[in-house]
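## Example pair
The file below holds two records. Each record gives the amino-acid sequence first, followed by its structure token line.
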Amino acid sequence: MPSRQTDTSLINKHEDEQQFRHQSDLRRAEINEILNSPIGADSFSWLQVEKLLNFLFENDENTGQAFRILDRAVKEIDVEKHITNEMVFQATQQWLTGYVNQQKSIEQPYTSYYPKNTRRYDTNDTNNNKRRMLTPLNVWKKVENYQRLGIPLESQTYHKVMEGTTHVKSKVPNNPNGARLAELILDRMMAQSKRNNPLIRPSSYTFTVAILSWEQAALYSPTEAKNDAPQRALALLNKLKSLYSSGWGAEFLPQSNAYRRVMNIFAHRGDGEQVEALLEDLYTLYLDHYEKDNENSSRLSLTTPFFSLALYAWSKSRDPMAAERAEAMLEQMLEMEASGEMPGLQVETNFFNIVMVCWSKQRTAESAQKVQAIFDRLAEYSKTDPSKKVIGASYMALITTHARSDPAKAEEIFWQWKKEHDEGTCEMRTDGDLIRTLVASWCKSNENDAAERCDRLVQFAIDSDDLSYVPPLSVYNMIINKFCQTKALDGFKRGEELLRQMQEIYKNNPRSDCKPNNLTYLPIVRSWAEIGQMERAEELLIDYFAQRQVPTVTQNDSSNDYNNSNSSITVPMSEKEEHLDTRLFNCVLKGWLPKASVMPEVAVRAEDTLLLTKTYGAKPNYASFQYVLDAWRKNKASFNSPWNQERPRVDEVLSLLDREYGRVDKKRELYLTLRQGWMLLSVH
């Protein structure tokens, strides 16, 4: 257990804090004295300036203060004798540390996808939130001004400002100011170098930082990522190669990191051709230096991530030959690994997975065979090479591919994966997308047991201990529809059981995406109505419209409890939802029609159902009115009395008809025909 602090230690700690606070107050007073002193005054002390700067650097104080002191100091004469590069460098270094931390705390940049008012800072330091950091552009203006006033600055100070541009998350979408500033600083350094300034000397690192800044711009500026960033980064790399080949020195040898940054930009665009060309260029450069036993060859070595980038680029490419090119590259890498030609290369499982994804995107019969062959090859390698072990992503790529054409094969692989997981040979982390893929595959098939196979998969996922899975609405709807398509009584019953399961899940977790909608009820209601189970169909119809009233939850009140809320609202409906509601009613109305000639009460039941549309806010169509009209006609034709016990409620029905369709439109003739038919019922 940690020792308890005594009263003496607490007092000492408090005294130390008080002393430090007192010293800080004194330093701030001295800083204000320096900042407010007249230019050329005797009270201005260079020794005091140096002491204050050291205090700010040692105590990690606000860098804005350090730059303000420097700005004041450069106004004095003989500034170049007192302000050194080390002072400016330390101020810039300290600014860079704070700026990087601030940019990291920004959860998301302001792009066209993220509105300005969602830009937030993830920090609990309220003082840091209020403290505004200088931008790289502002720091560069200060550094440039110091250089112009004669302070002998060095390359390392310029580099620190450039490094700041690699962390810019622009406030304006598609405006990579940081990258353009990095190029500007690079150009100034080149100009200084040409004037034989021995302190300013660009290098391969300078170009790499500028390229990295364009990579940042490509990441946070979608438009620039497609236009300027790739070409500007490539131009910088080509310029660096040109300077090296023209004899500017070994410090201009393009490092592998510069190639990797440019490759990364093109890879995210899906430009596999360019990424592969850059990879070959780097490999050629490496061989040239390696064969000459050049000491700089190690700076050009290719490691595994370079080859992974090339494969990734082909996986995002729309080139019809992308899969072939990716597979050819995989073969070449396997040969290089086996021969030891590239010591830093290790072909891993991920490489096989990427090539499988490339083939999977082809969506052809051949692609399924190719993916299976690559998977089998990986499985064979895994017997002797731990770096090429079959993992979950390998199974997912294979299952997704087979699911497009062979659901049985896809499910067989799924259960094989489950078996290996149970044996401890392969980790299994199935997710909702995989289950949905398998279910959708079976639902598109014509196999007799497709519905049962879907049901088995979903129930397995629900019951799985290592998967907190709640089937979404779309998955349930697909399975229920598939059961109802079987046209079998057991299928209808199972569909209704799944509906009840959805209701139970939603009752226990109202935030789940499991609330039944009209597409859930429609196939079940239609199925019961088609086989004459009208009471069951009617009961489900009423049940659906009753559950459409949902609890009200105040958006800003996180303490609201769905289960304890008594208020309710009606969910607004789209035109498609209104159409589906009408279809639900019509399934019941159409189901009553065949019974109208044998059951005298059917016409009344059908009419009651039609008039319920007013209660539930549904919109009957012309077919709705026609079904009920035909039911009354059959009733009249089948029984001796004009109307059996009940008479049609013509006035109510006509009022509903007029409300929905009593206007001039292209179906005016159909409306008048229906109205006349109902009017004739009233004269009997």
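Second record, same layout:
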Amino acid sequence: MAVSTWPAWAMRLFGGLLAGCGGIRCARRMVTMQHAGTNKTSSKVEGSKVREFRAFQLEYLLVYLTVMLADWLQGTNMYTLYSGYGFPVSQLFLTGFSSSLVFGTFVGLLVDRYGRRLACIAFCVLEIIINLLEHVPHMPTLLFGRCLGGVSTSLLFSAFESWMVSEHRRRGFDEEWLASTFSLAAAGNGIVAVIAGFLAQVAADLQGDIGPFRLAILLTVLSLCLVAFWPENYGQQAKTTSSLGPARQSFVDARRAISADTRVALLACVAALFEGATFTFVFMWVPTLLGKYDGALPMGLVFACFMISIAAGGELFGLLVADANALVFKGRVERFAFFVLAAASAAMIVPSPPGASFAATLASFLVLEVCVGTFNGCAATMRSKYIPDALQGSIMNVSRIPLNLLVVAGTTMADIAPPTVTFSVVSATFALGALLQLLLIQAQRRQAVKAD
């Protein structure tokens, strides 16, 4: 679809969302400056510490957003690439999720024990291999690539965050500043996803469906070079007197930590429910919108609107924590997460009736994407509060076991159940997550009373 034929409503929607995201960003900046103005008594030492933190933040975000850009690039044309090869797309996707459940969890458990930086390097190497395998139109080769993809996904969503949190604390930065990094990561992820859409289109125009994968290789090589200069940090050390193997011992330690703290268990369940429901939505939004729209739907522009909404959600979370005066550690993030889950549940009720209009359905999808961007920041901040630093990578990977089970179940349901049923189940899943979030808030209050 040429730019000249893009519907006016889609262009206005994209422009409006972009302006809204910019408005939230400006409001966040104003609150931050106002907060800084009330703390002019800060010493030169504190000012130097802030500059050191900003440099560290840039060091992490440059790598994290580059690997996320490469990851988004792979997703844009994967469906059309596999279809062009003539292979069953759903089978390849499910192989990736199943691999993440089995092999990814096993490998991810070794992150804390053998080093987070090493795990980030392993991720980059795996991604380069995976994208090279995508060039081969051979089903067993592609299945092997999806198996490796399951492992790399587990590393992506545990190793980088674990390294950053541990390094943040090792350098002596304030705990409240973690929320700033998480909010920038959430907002930046939405922005690089939009960029990925445009870059993928250019790459595909030049080299076909394989073009975005080649560009992803270059970006991953760049990330690998940057990660090589990171210092190493560890959680649970490799030396152990246990007769169990390293991965099994890490699993046992993570399970014990989850069982010992109700808040960690509840957070793991809430995150799994939210992400599992979101993955189900990802499989549903394209056929749902196509079925409700007369004419050619500008899918690329709609996708860009979704990603801008995620960025707006990240900025909204950043606005919440812009005044870092103990907001994060007095329960405000927990309460905000509850409202985000409730809003996501309400949004998914809208497309459930068969007669839901295109405009109402699209609006509900945009609301959900805002919730995704906001919840990402909330969940990451809560993980940094509740999960022991020594076992952060292990616990995050164990927590992905129910998530991957939910993804497989949701994908299967999306194939066999009508959209009305699927969206109702997705809404109920978010609602259950909101209920568990309330229990988490109560558990946190009880813990605070004990601490006093």
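Notes on the second record: The mean pLDDT is 85. Residues 44-85 form the longest helix (42 residues).
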